[in-house]
């Protein structure tokens, strides 16, 4: 019994409890039903009390509380800011500070969910000085010796005087004018990677030259934003997610280096139970560790390496490089932040707690995965709870009818660095789930020669584009695949297989490269159609040849035929065009697809196409649409969000929400513009 029922039952006279026991406890069962309803009523009363306060009310109550103070509702579809709780809670504070820069900055953060910085551009206007009313900071000529002010020139933290611009700020053109106020927004987020082994340079250095990126590539390091405690505080560089600059980091090392901060280095403990040893800030030097090349262009080393035996550690935050003065006794672990726009692929972002099948085998610190996988092949989970590098090519086997999960625990991003394609040997009617992994080398499932189904599920995984010719190759015709929030290189899928994709990127590295086709290595195989696909909010970079496009909704197909000698009939080539639908998507000119509904470009339009910040995996702006992209694409999805993998950011709705709030809170006579700092 629950506690309430037990209390009621114990208060009954003993004679009734004795008779109840003799008859099989029907009275106790009745009291359990009554106690359940009493508990529900008590919970409802408690919630009714909580609903009187904006901090504790249910989500559906927040707009009603807002209505009491004249709150104007906004689009409620934006993740992270779908609830107007913060907006309603701060409404009175907004009105008290109406028109001030700090208030406009706070409302921009609350409404969009992005870090923001408000700039009063009229404060940056240079003017002719009047001797009786001098303004020492309103001069045209900047101080060329003040490198800190020059670093932020033309940006959100600019302090240098400017001449007047008369263009309209609302269009994003002019900035520096008397009535102008600008709101800078940071769309790129700083994602953490904790205690990841630094990777030695493969060509030079002898183990003394390392990279933070576990994939061994250069990568800028980012600042993790510090929380602003007061609404009256204007954002500073430490409060926004920006790439770390060498000179700035050197001058403010204490603000960014240390446990829980943007960057921290540790040496792994000597024994399994020994804690990591921190590298003290006194031993850190910020340097430019760019390549040194010989006369033939071959890299022979890095610049500004610490002197041998000095015990110093040099860090280049722009390239994500580390140079050691002494060979470490144990591996160097780097905790840092990298930039990306969306929580997808392998990462330490919040992925929620998912039910896992038992038994659970735990693996850590780069130990072999194969023994644990062998133990759960009849059903179970292999869980990794760190962000180490696992260098092996395991053969993942699953017994018939069983379900196996290879799980990266929530808050961790391990790398599985395979020397070749990882073999998936799935038994009949079995299921394999990969969750939260960064995988280099690709996955391969052979044709098992039967008609039994196999199921492969990928969630929040990255099959590193470019690490293999094919990231995912499935030859079994009765396989079904589900991919959610994944990044992948080219996919080769048997013609009768089926795949469902939600918020994914398929990247063949170039629009004229092949992103999708059937398995095989011959010239004839390159023209065979891959399996049926259903896509929602996906971006595909490269040519696609599929048997059936069951559904493509809010997608971007960035594909083109090679300029010379391309044997494909179309960049997006669907064989069964009587079935399926393409809706609210961009398809390249010349594509052969099933019926289309509200797709771009329209017939005869050769100028409408997506423009990206970057199409290189690893860049902070990877697959992010630029502002130069036409609104027919940036607002062309079924719900007026943008097409492609960034659909669920709801960027157009965030912009609209902010403009509504600016109309309400901007001081009379001022004009505002929205600028993206990243």
Structural notes for this entry:
The protein has an eleven-stranded parallel sheet with strand order 14-15-18-21-24-27-30-33-36-39-40. With 678 residues, it is an alpha/beta fold. It is globular and about 100 Å long. Helix 1 crosses helix 3 (26-50). 17% of the residues lie in helices and 25% in strands. It is built from 13 helices and 41 strands. The model has no long low-confidence stretch (mean pLDDT 88). The chain folds into four domains: 3-50; 83-187 and 655-676, no CATH class; 192-340, no CATH class; 360-649.
In a nutshell, what does this entry contain?
This protein is of the alpha/beta class and 678 residues long. The protein is built from 13 helices and 41 strands.
Overall SS class = alpha/beta
Rg (C-alpha, Å): 29 Å
Average of pLDDT:
88
- Can you give the helix content as a percent range? 10-25%
Low-confidence stretches: none
Global shape: globular
Biggest beta sheet summary? 11 strands, parallel
Number of β-strand runs: 41
Count of separate DSSP helical elements: 13
Number of self-contained structural domains:
4
Placed side by side, the strands forming the largest sheet appear as: 14-15-18-21-24-27-30-33-36-39-40
Strand content: 15-25%
- Termini, distance in Å? 57 Å
Helix-strand blueprint:
Layout: H1 3-10, H2 14-22, H3 26-50, H4 62-68, H5 85-89, H6 91-96, H7 101-112, E1 116-120, H8 147-151, E2 180-185, E3 189-197, E4 199-200, E5 209-211, H9 246-251, H10 253-256, E6 264-267, E7 277-278, E8 284-286, E9 291-293, E10 299-302, E11 313-316, E12 321-324, E13 332-340, E14 360-363, H11 370-375, E15 380-384, E16 389-391, E17 396-398, E18 403-408, E19 415-417, E20 422-426, E21 430-435, E22 438-440, E23 443-445, E24 454-459, E25 462-463, E26 472-474, E27 479-484, E28 487-488, E29 491-493, E30 498-502, E31 505-507, E32 514-517, E33 532-536, E34 539-541, E35 543-546, E36 549-553, E37 556-558, E38 572-574, E39 581-583, E40 596-597, H12 631-634, H13 651-665, E41 671-676
Parallel strand pairs: 2-41, 8-11, 14-15, 15-18, 16-19, 17-20, 18-21, 19-22, 20-23, 21-24, 22-25, 23-26, 24-27, 26-29, 27-30, 28-31, 29-32, 30-33, 31-34, 32-35, 33-36, 34-37, 35-38, 36-39, 39-40
Antiparallel strand pairs: 1-2, 3-13, 4-5, 5-12, 6-7, 6-13, 9-10, 11-12
Helix pairs in contact: 1-3, 7-13
């Amino acid at each position: 019994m629950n506690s309430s029922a037990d209390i009621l039952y114990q208060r009954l006279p003993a004679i009734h409890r004795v008779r109840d026991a003799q008859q099989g406890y029907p009275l106790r069962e009745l009291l359990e039903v009554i106690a359940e309803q009493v508990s529900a009523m008590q919970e409802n009363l408690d919630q009714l009390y909580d609903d009187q306060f904006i901090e504790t009310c249910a989500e559906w109550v927040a707009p009603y509380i807002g209505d009491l103070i004249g709150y104007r509702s906004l689009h409620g579809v934006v993740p992270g800011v779908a609830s107007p709780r913060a907006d309603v809670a701060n409404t009175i504070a907004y009105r008290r500070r109406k028109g001030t820069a700090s208030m406009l900055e706070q409302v921009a953060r609350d409404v969009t969910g992005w870090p923001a910085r408000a700039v009063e551009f009229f404060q940056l206007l240079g003017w002719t000085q009047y001797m009786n009313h001098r303004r020492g900071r309103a001069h045209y000529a900047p101080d060329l010796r003040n490198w800190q002010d020059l670093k932020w020139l033309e940006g959100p933290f600019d302090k240098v005087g400017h001449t007047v611009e008369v263009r309209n700020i609302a269009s994003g053109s002019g900035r520096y004018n008397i009535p102008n106020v600008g709101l800078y927004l940071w769309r790129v987020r700083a994602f953490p990677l904790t205690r990841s082994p630094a990777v030695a340079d493969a060509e030079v250095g002898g183990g003394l030259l390392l990279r933070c990126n576990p994939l061994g590539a250069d990568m800028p390091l980012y600042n993790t934003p510090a929380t602003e405690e007061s609404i009256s505080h204007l954002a500073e560089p430490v409060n926004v997610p920006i790439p770390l600059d060498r000179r700035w980091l050197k001058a403010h090392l204490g603000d960014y280096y240390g446990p829980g901060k943007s960057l921290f280095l540790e040496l792994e403990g000597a024994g399994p139970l020994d804690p990591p040893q921190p590298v003290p800030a006194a031993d850190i030097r910020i340097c430019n560790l760019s390549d040194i090349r010989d006369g033939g262009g071959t890299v022979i080393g890095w610049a500004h390496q610490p002197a041998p035996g000095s015990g110093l550690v040099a860090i280049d935050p722009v390239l994500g490089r580390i140079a050691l003065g002494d060979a470490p006794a144990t591996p160097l672990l780097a905790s840092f932040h990298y930039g990306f726009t969306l929580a997808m692929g392998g990462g330490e972002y919040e992925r929620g707690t998912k039910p896992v099948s038992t038994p659970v085998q735990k693996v850590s610190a780069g130990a072999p995965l194969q023994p644990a996988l062998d133990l759960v092949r009849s059903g179970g989970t292999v869980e990794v709870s760190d962000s180490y590098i696992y260098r092996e090519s395991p053969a993942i086997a699953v017994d018939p009818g069983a379900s196996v999960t290879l799980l990266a625990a929530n808050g961790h991003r391990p790398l599985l660095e395979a020397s070749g394609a990882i073999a998936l040997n799935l038994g009949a009617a079995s299921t394999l789930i990969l969750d939260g992994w960064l995988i280099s080398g690709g996955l391969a499932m052979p044709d098992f020669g039967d008609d039994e189904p196999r199921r492969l599920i990928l969630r929040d995984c990255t099959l590193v584009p470019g690490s293999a010719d094919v990231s995912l190759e499935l030859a079994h015709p009765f396989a079904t695949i589900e991919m959610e929030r994944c990044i992948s290189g080219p996919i080769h899928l048997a013609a009768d297989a089926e795949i469902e994709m939600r918020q994914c990127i398929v990247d063949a590295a170039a629009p004229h490269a092949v992103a999708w086709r059937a398995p095989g290595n011959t010239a004839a195989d390159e023209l065979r159609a891959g399996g049926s696909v259903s896509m929602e909010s996906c971006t595909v970079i490269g040519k696609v040849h599929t048997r059936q496009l069951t559904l493509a909704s809010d997608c971007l197909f960035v594909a083109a035929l090679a300029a010379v000698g391309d044997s494909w009939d179309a960049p997006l080539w669907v064989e069964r065009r009587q079935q399926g639908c393409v809706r609210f998507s961009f398809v390249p000119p010349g594509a052969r697809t099933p019926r289309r509904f509200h797709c771009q470009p329209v017939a005869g339009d050769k100028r409408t196409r997506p423009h990206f910040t970057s199409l290189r995996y690893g860049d902070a702006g990877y697959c992010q649409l630029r502002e130069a992209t036409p609104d027919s694409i940036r607002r062309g999805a079924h719900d007026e969000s943008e097409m492609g993998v960034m659909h669920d950011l709801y960027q157009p709705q965030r912009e609209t929400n902010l403009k509504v709030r600016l109309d309400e809170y901007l001081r009379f006579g001022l004009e505002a513009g929205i600028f993206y700092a990243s």
